[in-house]
Amino acid sequence: MTSSSTDALLLQVLDAALADMRTSRPKNLERALGYQAESISPEAEDLARQDVVRAALERCHPTDPLVEAWRRKLTDWDFLPDVAWSESPERTQQRRDDVYGLLALSEETRKLLDSLVPVSRVDAPVVISDEFVPWYTPQSMQGRPWYWPAYRSYLERKGWGPEAVAGLDVATDAVVERLADPTHPAVYQSKGLVVGYVQSGKTANFAGVIAKAVDAGYRLVIVLGGTLNMLRAQTQRRLDMELVGRENILRGASEYESDYANDPAWIQGGFTSFGDLPSTRGGFDIVRLTTRDDDYKSLLQGITALEFEKQEPALPLHDPRNLHRSSARLMVVKKHKTVLGKLVKDLKKIKTPLSEIPVLIIDDESDEASVNTSNLTKPDAERSAINLKISELLQLLPRAQYVGYTATPYANVFVDPSDAEDIFPKDFIVSLPRPEGYMGARDFHDLDSAIPEGERDFANSNELAHVRNITVHDESGDDDFCLQQAMDMFVLTAAMKLYREDKGGLGARYFQHHTMLIHESVRTDVHRELLGKATEMWWNAGYMGEAGRRRLQKLFEEDVAPVSAVRADGHAVPPSYEALAPYVGPAVTRIGGDDHPIIVVNGDRDIETGEANFDERSIWKILIGGQKLARGFTVEGLTVSYFRRRAGNASTLMQMGRWFGFRKGYRDLVRLFLGRAETVGTKEIDLYAGFEAICLDEENFRKELQQYAKMIDGKPQVTPDQVPPLVSQHLPWLKPTSPNKMYNARLAELRSPGQWQEPTAYPTRSADLRHNTHLWTPVLESLSPTATSFAYHFPPEHDRDAVTHRFEAFVGTLTPAEFLALVAQVRWGAPSQFAPHLAYLSEINEAASSDVVDWLVLAPQHAKRGQRLIIGTGNRSYAWFGRERRRGPLFGALSEPKHRAAPQRIAGGLADSGDGNTEALVAPRRGVVVVYPVVEPKHRADIGEDGRLAPEKITMAFSFVAPASARRADGRVLRFTTIDSGKEGQAIIDAP
Question: Which helix (H) or strand (E) holds 484?
């Protein structure tokens, strides 16, 4: 046998052995190889040894088929939660070692596999859940899965890596296992929420949930696919292509009769295929009740299609003898009261008892459907009607399970549970991890950067690399210069993509789409005005002449080239503008060769006519849009965004972030032009700062869920009905909408040993601010006269280089009694925010407790002189910090990232800092408090030449780290109280 044929035979044997372990624990590898080889050939039996596998692996590259076979299987085992064959946590080296032990691998083979297939560090989904009865297990699903394995294979063919597929498997399991068992005689209606990221692949998650749910027995799937035809059609096509498959779409009809007959993906074999109708091959069919072009219609055919066949008429449909022999029905419907009304009407007419049908309702962009507007004269009053129809569906279908999907963490179904009887997620909340390769809010901001602003460059600053300011040059609000620069960037990045296709080995048409989005208003009259302006600018840009060439060359040399030089991630970068210039002409032609370089998308007609249909043609265009492009709809190939939010735009900033998503092959080319001084009502806002605030809120929200998702003694610390009052501690404006209702749970105590805590709800009343300043002044005056330098050295990790956080601070100490007396007297703008912290601090600082010996006080000082205040009666000055309130009494981040690690180390929350001064202050049972005199922008001009400022114009802020040892034996970090114990588990109750 030749070497290549031997390798192919070995791969066949290994694939068979690993496939045989797909639904079981790892087994002795040599035995498994021998068992499979026996049925293949005598030559295969000679290869069924571990040393042969190891020798082959030693010759392999990381992308060779033999390594990929191991990667798929090891990743599956790495990701599986709560397995009977290992007590080690998933995605750890300990779990991997357990796998190797069961496979009986030698030390040499283990080391080799670890080097070729390292243990994944991808985050797992975070689940906040009530207790549930496990029913969705590998044993219960044995022999039944049809659509999930097919969907999984489709994603693998599409290029999804093993980690991404395994992560999706785990995340979808977390949802499906919390639905009701579709075969159980008792009726139960589960309601949950899945929180993803904007443009991050939530559709893939709910497609996987649908696949597993229908395999398990759910027989009617209703997908609420947005409020617009274009969103509904986009979702229908995705599910048809990736899940339903060609045979279920055609159902015996000709290929040319399909509603996708003109779709390039259909013609090129891009739709999943089973080879024949699944029902003829031991599976079951999916019957579509809607198509890409047609929403649900109230027709006789629709009523008939809703009827469910029973093999055993005497038994209910949910009995396994009927359920697993009947077809599933799928519909993707627009969230429109008329459409949903037709569906409700038809369901009432069918003969199959509705109480027997296991139903799954997926609500995409669920925060849009749940807003229950009380004033029906408002423009968005229809949402109330939609909410009413969803409620009718849930009441009509007692076996219906409701799962909402949103990218907005503070979606109304989540933070406003006054709708508790309708679609509040009472059973579970799943927070999906940030996907690999995703470009989100964090990638446009320098959050937690310890690098001083003056030392930031294109390599270490996301803002400098990707964000460009829109500046207005006169009182008329003219931004022509910036818009022209954005359009020039669009042309340059188009040329860069063509260069990469040609010189970078990507091949022709690798970049199917290349788009720029101009988003200034939701008003169609503004869109018409913008179209005229942008069109005139395009034709006068002179891209093929000398003036255009000079502008493009300057922009390339000052912006594109230096950014791509440090951020191209291995993709081709032209050595000079002269090397790129030959691609500029073809780029301009590709964009405007049809005399229509710009498309306005402010209605469904634009999609229905094909002008902005990314599924049916390659689009290299500038798009002008508003609400239609602000939520849910995926703008493919988006590279340049020009965003100015004018007064009247009602959509949330985060949902408008169409520039988030996957940018494979052109991440370094992405540019975001943002207004930094936009007028919204009577207020001038910085859109970049606004996005940063939302990003921080989102990250804090996800960290909180992750912290509280840990089970204690097999029981959840937090259930979904307790999440709203938990989040409201940080966001005072998040309250029940109805004044006569209240949260039934109240957060009583939050324990945070070794963790940085940063209260932000400081008072606004002058008397309270003056009180706090006088309270802290003696503490400041007691600190050391000279500053001490502190540092924390972070070693390099897989996703970042080594970094050192360094700062100087005055130092002092307080006894536990002094510290507790101090913080107990601090006044707040929202006292409920600090109350759970105070309960914990009281517990660990009381005289009877031995949890705290002392508190180290640090007052950080700026590296350079300046920004100093004289506080107190003496002449001693301290650094002050400029901060703004973001919402009501709430500030944004008060501390600087570089200040956090050293205090955490001193309190025992982090490992050795590598810094002598820091280590010298580390002591058992020591807490740290960090003090920040804050001056808001409106008071900065009031600082006198002598460095003094009235005490009521100073906000004395502080952060703290409790000793890492000050924890409860049971590990619980939260304690709730119930307002009405007789209604425990209800999120909302009537106020007394």
Answer: helix 480-503
Write the pLDDT tens digit of every residue in 299-336: 555 566 778 888 888 999 999 989 988 999 999 999 88
The CA-atom distances, in angstroms, between 565 and each of 453, 465, 511, 679, 742 are 21, 11, 20, 36, 55
pLDDT confidence of residue 507? 92
Longest CA pairwise span in the chain (Å)? 94
d(CA 718, CA 720): 7
Beta strands in 139-219 (DSSP E): 191-195
Q: Tell me how crowded residue 353 is: count the other CB atoms within 10 A of its CB.
A: 11
Taking the alpha carbons of 979, 984, 985, 988 in that order, is the dihedral positive or negative? negative
Q: Which residues contact 379 (CB under 8 A, 6 or more apart)?
A: none
The C-alpha R_g of the chain, in whole angstroms, comes to 30
Taking each helix axis from N to C terminus, what angle separates 816-825 and 766-781, rounded to the nearest 10 degrees? 160
Tens-place pLDDT, residues 690-701 = 777 666 767 777
Give the 3-state secondary structure of 211-227: HHHHHHCCCEEEEEECC
Alpha-carbon dihedral sign for residues 883, 458, 692, 171: negative
Q: Residue 569, class by beta-carbon neighbours within 10 Å (0-12 exposed, 13-18 middle, 19+ buried)?
A: exposed
- For β-strands 428-431 and 126-129, DSSP reports them as antiparallel
Q: What is the DSSP track for 3-27? A: HHHHHHHHHHHHHHHHHTTTTS---
Q: Which residue has the tokens 């009343």?
A: 765
Helices (H), 504-574: 524-539, 546-555, 561-567
DSSP 177: T
Alpha-carbon dihedral angle through residues 657, 662, 667, 669, given to the nearest 10 degrees: -50
Query: What whole-number distance in Å separates Cα of residue 593 and Cα of residue 278?
Result: 46
First to last CA, the chain: 85
**Which tokens hold the place of 98?**
């357990």
Nearest to 776 by CA among 958, 937, 900, 899: 958
HEC per residue, 697-727: HHHHHHHHHHHHCCEECCEECCCHHHHHHHH
The number of beta carbons lying within 10 Å of the beta carbon of residue 681 is 8
> pTM for this structure?
0.80
Report yes or no: 620 and 513 within 8 Å, Cβ to Cβ: yes
Mean pLDDT, rounded, for 837-848: 88
The Cα–Cα gap between 721 and 130 comes to 9
The answer for residues whose C-beta is within 8 angstroms of residue 263's C-beta and 6 or more apart is 237, 615, 616
Rounded Cα–Cα distance for residues 384 and 373 (Å):
5
β 400-406/191-195 pair status: parallel
Contact between residue 527 and residue 626 where contact means Cβ atoms under 8 Å apart: yes
Whose tokens are 């498997």? That residue is: 169
Assigned token pair, 707: 């912290």
Say which residues have a Cβ less than 8 Å from residue 129's Cβ, sequence separation at least 6.
178, 427, 428, 429, 716, 719, 720
Spell out the residues 6+ positions from residue 486 whose beta carbon is closer than 8 angstroms to its own.
Answer: 468, 516, 518, 640, 642, 671, 673
